[in-house]
Amino acid sequence: MDSPTNELQQLQAQIANLKSELSDYQSQVSELKKQKLQLQQTLKLTEEKLHATLDGTGLCLWEQDIPSGILTMYNQEWGALLGYTLEERPAHIDSWKSHLHPDDKDWVIKAFYDHVEGKENVYRAVHRMLHKDGSVSWVSDRGRIIEFTENGQPKRIMGTHTDITQEKRYEQELARLAHYDPLTNLLNRNALKSHYQKNFKHPQAKGALIFIDLDGFKGINDKAGHRIGDLLLIHVANTISQTAKNLLGAGQHAIARIGGDEFVILTTVHQAEILTPFANTLLQQFNHPTTIEQHKAQIGLSIGVCAFSAPTAFSHAYEQADKAMYQVKQQGKHDVAFVSLL
Description:
Elements: H1 4-55, E1 59-65, E2 70-73, H2 93-98, H3 105-116, E3 123-130, E4 136-148, E5 154-163, H4 165-179, H5 189-199, E6 206-215, H6 217-224, H7 226-248, E7 253-257, E8 262-267, H8 272-285, E9 290-292, E10 295-297, E11 300-309, H9 314-330, E12 335-340
Parallel strand pairs: 11-12
Antiparallel strand pairs: 1-2, 1-5, 3-4, 4-5, 6-8, 6-11, 7-8, 9-10
Helix pairs in contact: 6-7, 7-8
């Protein structure tokens, strides 16, 4: 049997061991706290670098919990791309759906659920979304299921959401320049020819090609300068467009600027009783000088009209209207001549 002295010594030894173990444990906790702080700092720095990099590209990382529909946006606040705060639009799939462009909504949602349901290997869509200010934003979306439940049901999906609005606007502007005259915003020759081939291919199709050349434009352009000349061309284009809308009917015609001072109208109207008043009204519009920024500009219109029926080729109708216009030029200008291929 141990003496009280021995028991006390054993107890003191146990206490010393416990103190030592506690000291080691505290050291380990301190080291773990230090490592945790370092990891947090590293994570924060990494996230800052990631956000700075992604924000500069318009790329947004997102993750969705599929059962709840809750969205997590990793490098941008939810709704920021569309002008909303978190309070205005919660980060949820229903908010995303509600801001899809009406013309894209059905097929985009289908593409999303085709992947969620395993019909497609990846979700991918380039589509439009509605901004808070009413404008349209273009985005490129990609996503993939990254986690399933124990029952094999999709649980989480992660992807990227890229704002490509500027790229789309650039593409649209290039397309516009490929089909439209940049000064007057009328069609160019190629677009006019495409319009002809699309709208006058039916065997029973009839119409008219109206060729308009300005009289006296070169002298005004040389004397007053190209700026005044450009403004005059815009004025003529607007006058032709408005007169065509009033007398030929909206949607019944296409108008192009095909040269410096040459304009062409393609219309489904082929009746002389309509085309004659239209041409005469245009002529009357320029019977008197036009004032452009205090510059008085007197121009005339030499107009050639070719009425045609399918299958007349565009080049043939164009040539006949051009010849009719030159007859006007030779006979004194500022008038109209008709030719019929009906």
